Amino acid sequence: MRSLENIFWLGTKELRSFFRDWVLLAFVVYSFSLAIIAQAQSNSQELHNASIAIVDEDHSVLSRRIAAAFLPPYFKPPVYVEERDIDRLMNTGRYTFVIDIPPHFERDVLGDRKPALQIAVDATAMVQAGIGSGYAAQIISTEISNFVTRSEASIIPAVTLSTHMAFNPNATTGWFSSVMGIINSITMLAIILAGAAVVREREHGTMDHLLVMPLTPFEIAMSKIWANAVIITGAVGLSLIFIVERLLDVPIAGSIPLFMVGVVIYLFFATAIGLFLATIARTMPQLGLLYILVAVPLNMLSGATTPLESMPQFLRTIMQASPSTHFVAYAQAILYRGAGLEIVWPRFAAVAVIGGIFLALAIRRFRNSSAYSS
Fold first, then answer.
1. What angle do CA 269, 271, 272 make, to 5 degrees?
2. Triad 66, 72, 78: Cα angle to 5°
3. Could you say which of 14, 256, 331, 354 is the most buried, measured as most Cβ atoms within 10 Å of its Cβ?
4. Is the full-model pTM beyond 0.85?
5. Predicted local distance difference test score (pLDDT) of residue 259
6. CB burial class (10 A; 0-12, 13-18, 19+) of residue 15?
């Protein structure tokens, strides 16, 4: 009981120290608010409000139908321009797409003379150019087919392909990147906060004061782990509810409390990494360099950026030993697919076992380094 009391009061000291450090406090707030918003809204992989202009040299019913078919939210309302202005508008980046409908286009279509229609694309807007050109071609083809057949329905093919997209019907990038941004921030902040807590004590000279007190290295280490875990857990919960669900309007399919349990389990591993790195680094710049070497590969290879199935087999096998891989897997299962405890408990167990082993090694390393320092 004495040891638990020491861990508790040392942890409260860490919390007070954190809330007095305005730089770290601002960093945590930014990482779970503005950084999530920026990642969700600026890294869009779908077509949205693409600017388009139309050169209508035919002035026919068909050309007007084609122009009217380009609708928000994929395209902005088309603007009619002159043919002589195409090069100037494309060079200045005014429009991403310019469609040039030649004279007598409707007559040639009805006469089955296969006329050419030009779509000029500004490929400097790479994502919109690649996806939008396909959308534009499909829209134009559909309108021509409907016009020729005098029907609002295209000719029914022999085989109908029905595609059903589960969990993200419109393939909206923000639904994925916002949650993955939170997951990456958890790993980043857990390592930085836990490591900074130890390095800060060493730089300020207060670590020596703690070591001469009737405290064990285990109590010192565990107090820093639980205090930083509480800070990150609270920030994650607030970010999911107020930033992801309400501000970004991203639906959460599963149980947020179940996900928070998984976060707490994972934080024992992530904060242990920060503790371990702090026993190696002597200053904050050294801790930052070590963080890059450890955390960046963990995030990139965990499945948060690219699926594990796209990686080489040997790399997939190695990453199964990393709790970050299992954390990403059950986070996606809970938040995207609404999985319950009966589905994700093996992942929970894997993170707990692997994280527990690494936590024991980190505390042992911290105990040895503390004994050496004293």
1. 60
2. 45
3. 331
4. no
5. 94
6. middle
